TrEMBL record:
It comes from Albula goreensis. SUPFAM superfamilies: Periplasmic binding protein-like I. InterPro entries: ANF_lig-bd_rcpt, ANP_Clearance_Receptor, ANPR/GUC, Peripla_BP_I. Residues 46-389 form the Receptor ligand binding region domain. GO terms for biological process: signal transduction. Its main location: membrane. This is Receptor ligand binding region domain-containing protein. The lineage of its organism: Eukaryota, Metazoa, Chordata, Craniata, Vertebrata. Residues 1-22 form the signal peptide. It is a single-pass type I membrane protein.
């Protein structure tokens, strides 16, 4: 059935009248994203942006008119299916460009395979630190700021406000592990700055999270950086408030990069008896989020994308901007088109994945929401904001600090107050205390059912293995029969070299 449909589609595409143009290039684009609409980057969310980019390029007379993008969407959940989709599809014909995957464990094998096949991959995800190793992920370009770029914001704040130590609290679902990868970035950047770091890992599969136990561990730290579900953050802040730790002797951060409806105004509110306490506690909570720019074209884009999303029956928070994944995949297609045109001018063509990728790196271009700068390693520079509660009556949030990744500079906004970020009130403990005390604290919490991660250092090492080693894949079983035997061997060798053991 699907074969017939895609066959018809192909015939139809071939028979389409082609505009007379100096050059004509058909580009097969494979988009590998989850179908499940509980993801911010599901196919239904991202497809309208990609279609918008196609339309927009068509309307820019001349420049891109010779490029015909044939876009295919493949469902990847957040794991193996992504690789299977790529391999199954590529038996007939390999795509010229891959957009996605976003989830780390889906992206790792896909990008490695694509790099091996010399196919450029552009993703608004794959944000984990491991993907910065562009020897292994040579064809990957990231159009959304990675967790390492985010972590530079913390690094810059630690220097500016002379903070000395950090306590990282992260929720780990042992599945997609978004918070784990988020704080892995923070850990690896702060570590090189010689910040003393302790870390605590909350297993979200545990039914109860004992926030009082968690809070006992932070005693010697100055800056608490958290990544967890909104309800866990609230529990921890309430526990901190009960122990009177929210009076300015500690600095609290949570990281909420993508889902703008879960941070800011009213995020403390649940309609239960703790609301008043939570509001007071949140007065000391700073939220780090992406700084999104908006220009007139973006309004139109945003409206059109939302319309398409609603057309397929999905609900979209009206107040929200279109998220960074949707924006990123729009810009991804644009960036590829620019690079391809340059490569073609140079006498090469779409099969030269290395050169196309090189042309996408180390450049700034005008994206749909503003300038997008890709560094010389193929990763986008990011801008971030620190939000804080400025109206304690209303409990509303405002941005107080902006950080620009491209030049590493801060912009202090009108409501910024230096006292909020200064640790003048607290008694200073000698740094030598930390090692012995924190390990004692960790022992206690392990007993009470909170599973305490070793320092992220060990975790980092593991993450490295996750990326080096890949899922053990039995390709033969999954591939259609018409796969060439040569390709078979290639795939098998590739997956054996990187066989994955689940931890
Ligand atoms: C979509 O994902 C959510 C959360 O991961 C899960 O609970 C749900 O069952 C999934 N839906 C489908 C149709 O797979
Ligand atoms: C905040 O509370 C802690 C512990 O109760 C106390 O040591 C510290 O002096 C207080 N700081 C301020 C600014 O009140
Ligand atoms: C975004 O945040 C809201 C409010 O906390 C939550 O209901 C929703 O599930 C979140 N969406 C995603 C995709 O995480
Ligand atoms: C919170 O509310 C205030 C006042 O209504 C508004 O100015 C501000 O933009 C809002 N902030 C967020 C993050 O929604
Ligand atoms: C967006 O721009 C297109 C073309 O310029 C126009 O047709 C469309 O009406 C605009 N949409 C909105 C919501 O302004
Ligand atoms: C053009 O192609 C050649 C050979 O592939 C390469 O060495 C050169 O750097 C390219 N020029 C530009 C401007 O990319
Ligand atoms: C693309 O370029 C390669 C070498 O760079 C060449 O072998 C191939 O024939 C070209 N393909 C097309 C369709 O021009
Ligand atoms: C990046 O581009 C600039 C000019 O735009 C150039 O001077 C610099 O050498 C490039 N860096 C790398 C690493 O290619
Ligand atoms: C850093 O970059 C931002 C955004 O491009 C710009 O607004 C700001 O003025 C720059 N700051 C410095 C010190 O160059």
């Amino acid at each position: 059935m699907t074969c017939v449909v895609s066959y018809c589609l192909c015939v139809w595409l071939i028979l389409l009248p082609v505009k007379a143009s100096a050059m004509n290039e058909d580009i097969d684009v494979l988009v590998i994203l989850p179908k499940n609409n509980s993801y911010l980057f599901s196919i239904s969310m991202v497809a309208p942006a990609i279609e918008y980019a196609k339309q927009r390029m068509k309307s820019l007379k001349g420049m891109y008119s010779g490029l015909n993008f044939n876009v295919h969407y493949e469902n990847s959940n957040c794991g193996d299916e992504a690789l299977f989709s790529l391999v199954d599809r590529s038996c007939e014909k390999k795509p010229d460009l891959i957009l996605g995957p976003v989830c780390e464990y889906a992206a790792a094998p896909v990008v490695r395979m694509a790099s091996h096949w010399n196919i450029p991959v552009i993703s608004a995800g794959a944000l984990a630190s491991g993907f910065s190793h562009k020897k292994e992920y040579s064809h990957l370009t990231r159009v959304a700021p990675s967790y390492l770029k985010m972590a530079e914001t913390f690094s810059a704040m630690f220097r500016r406000f002379s903070w000395k130590n950090a306590f990282l609290i992260y929720e780990d679902d042992m599945d997609e592990r978004n918070c784990y990868f988020t704080l892995e970035g923070v850990h690896s950047v702060l570590k090189t700055d010689n910040v003393h770091i302790d870390a605590l890992n909350i297993h979200s599969k545990d039914n109860r999270v004992d926030s009082d136990e968690i809070i006992k561990n932070i005693h010697d730290s100055e800056v608490i950086i958290m990544c967890a579900a909104a309800d866990i953050i609230r529990d921890i802040m309430l526990a901190a408030h009960r122990r009177r730790l929210t009076n300015g002797s500690y600095i609290f951060f949570n990281i909420e990069l993508f889902n703008s409806s879960s941070y800011g105004n009213g995020s403390w509110k649940r309609g239960d008896k703790y609301d008043m306490d939570a509001k007071q506690a949140y007065a000391t909570l700073n939220t780090l989020t992406l700084l999104r720019t908006v220009k007139p074209e973006f309004e139109n884009f945003s409206v059109e994308v939302k319309k398409s999303i609603q057309k397929v029956g999905m609900r979209h928070h009206d107040s929200d901007n279109v998220n960074i994944f949707v924006e990123g995949f729009h810009d991804a297609l644009l960036l590829y088109a620019m690079a391809l045109l340059e490569v073609m001018k140079n006498g090469s063509n779409k099969t030269d994945g290395v050169q196309i990728t090189q042309h996408m790196w180390n450049r700034t271009f005008e994206g749909i929401a503003g300038p997008v700068s890709i560094d010389f390693n193929g990763d986008r520079y990011g801008d971030f904001s620190v939000m804080a509660m400025m109206d304690h009556e209303e409990g509303t949030y405002e941005a107080v600090i902006n950080y620009f990744g491209i030049n590493g500079s801060f912009q202090m906004l009108p409501r910024f107050n230096n006292d909020r970020f200064t640790l003048t009130h607290r008694h200073q403990t000698a740094p030598t205390d930390y090692a012995s005390k924190s390990s004692g604290g960790l022992g206690v919490s392990a007993v009470t059912g909170i599973i305490v991660g070793a320092l992220l250092g060990t975790a980092l090492l593991m993450a490295f293995y996750f990326f080096r080693k890949n899922y053990r894949v039995t390709i033969e079983r999954r591939s259609p029969r018409d796969c060439g035997i040569g390709k078979h061997r290639q795939l098998r060798e590739d997956s054996i070299r990187s066989s994955f053991s689940t931890a």
